[in-house]
Amino acid sequence: MTTMRQAFVRTVNEEIDRDPRIAVVTAVISSNEFPQENERVVDVGIREQTMVGVAGGLALAGLRPVVHSYAPFLVERPYEQIKLDIGHQEVGAVFVSIGASYDDPAWGRTHQSPGDVALFDTLPGWTVHVPGHPDEVTPLLRQALKDDNRVYVRLSLHENTQAYPVGEGFTALRHGKRGVVLAVGPMLDRVMKAVDSENADVTVLYASTIRPFDSDGLLKAVRDTDHADVMVVEPYLEGTSAHLISEALQLIPHRVRCIGVKRHAELRNYGTAEDHDAAHDLDVVGLGSAVRSFFRG
Amino acid sequence: MTGDEKHEWAAASTIDVLWVLYDKVLNVTPATADDPDRDRFLLSKGHGPMAYYAVLAEKGFIDESTLDGWTTWDSPLGQHPDRMLVKGVEISSGSLGHGLPIAVGTAIGQRVGKSRGRTFVLVGDGELDEGSNHEAIAVAARLNVANLTAIVIDNQSAMYGWPGGIARRFAVEGWQTAEVDGRDHEAVFAALTAPHDRPYAVVAKIEKSY
């Protein structure tokens, strides 16, 4: 069984041989997965600020850098470098993280990054992919490597049983009349189980690309229902997409329920990802309860 | 001393080195500002860009009349330079500690692209307080980014100084180094054109500012 990380490594190693623009910049993590003898593969050691700065410089010199590390070290630690060395220089890069919100919670809070997508949301021009299956990783990455834009690809150990075609718009997997549930990336399978368990007559949209936000797709889905009630289930900080949902539905009286990693307190427990899912109501039981209460009546 | 006055000091500190760079060292003109084989100059210490703008105007990258309206709404010239607004400006800078890591990347990119161009980056001794510089100093040496020259304007503004001197900080990581009077144009030229097969740091000493 191929993991998302393995799909990422395989895809980049295939493309780096084909495309002389592609470069890889790492800070030790995963560096042994890439051909160190290739002069376009740069491992800077455990120096994440310089990892992003070097990537910005490579992009200014005409290359297409892939920047990779564990999510908190890729996004949170060098955040100003992302803002200035990539965005403010008006250059592109492909950032690829592993670890997600809490893929390995036994490592504690230092290795958790539920706020990564929210941080990218503060910066203009970023495409954000949250694949839900390893087979979605390769097409998303191949397109990103061809382009010149700024892309964040958020990989996870958690995945759905089935891949769906990737693209910028949301994919409607089920149609109902009571409202709309938007499931992002690895949240899809559990959303479907929760909806089934509650016999909820809702439309289910799936997104492996959450930025740009498919406002038109959401609006159309809402208009095809009898109630402008939208639940969004994201595998990162709750409410990350709330402002875009509100903007998309600004002319329609509507209700929104945002589910994700809770904001109210830092969870200091170790345990497993499943333990954390339960604590954040991101498991089937928690989601079923949310579906039941939100779509009541 | 106000922020504006500090930036005036910063401009006064860099003016001689900037002039020598653009007048005698850098292989770049307005006509070759996008040439892959050009030399790239990165003003990491984006503070006090008045000197930078003046040199760019003198060398034809920007119209001299533009200087008058600087920092106004319609002016492309601000207290920190923006590469998207000013021809010839290689990086947008202002927040300290960004230029040297970026310069390592551009120099590697030039090497990968078989460019004849070199990368020069100007930092301040106070700016070296930022830890990101020390990441980049180490990486440039380990990867032997020999087409990279860092110019440190040493106006003794670092809060705690550098034991043994700034050049030593680079040298222990494997850089070739030189120290020069930053007001002596001939000495600056000689230092900036000295051959080197390793990353190269030129410490340009200036009178203490503030």
From TrEMBL, chain B:
Gene3D superfamilies: 3.40.50.970. Residues 7-194 form the Transketolase N-terminal domain. InterPro entries: THDP-binding, Transketolase_N. Belongs to the transketolase family. Its cofactor is thiamine diphosphate. The keyword Nucleus does not apply. GO terms for molecular function: magnesium ion binding. This is Transketolase. The keyword Transmembrane does not apply. Keywords: Thiamine pyrophosphate. Pfam families: Transketolase_N (PF00456).
